[in-house]
TrEMBL record:
Keyword vocabulary terms for this entry: Signal
A Pfam entry, by short name: DUF4783
Name of the protein this chain belongs to: DUF4783 domain-containing protein
InterPro entries, A to Z: DUF4783 (IPR031977)
Domain of life of the source: Bacteria
Cleavable signal peptide: 1-19
Amino acid sequence: MKRLLLLIALVVAAIHVQAADITTITTALKTGNATTLQSCMDKSVDMALADKSKTCNAQEAVSMLNGFFSSNKPSSFSLLHHADKKDNGFLVAKLTAGNKSYRVNVTYKVEGDKVVIQSIRIE
């Protein structure tokens, strides 16, 4: 009986520790297709790109990213770190576009099985 309870506790813990699915975010950043991120954006998103920063709605955030990607076409993208804590998480990546390398930081919250972007910083 003790083993069964321990097994159930481990299964429940494993379910809660499962990392959020950030595939949509990493694919969009890797390909420079910000439009696919609009459904993942929070109502208010903190954006900081190479030359400007502001808090904006999802549509403005996507527009800013599309502007960035139009002059900085990604040639490589590598995820450096990804961590989740309860209902939120972040990722850190290296994006190479043209002859420049950028550090990308994305913070998000998890609502059910959906990742909701709260901030994007590309520096």
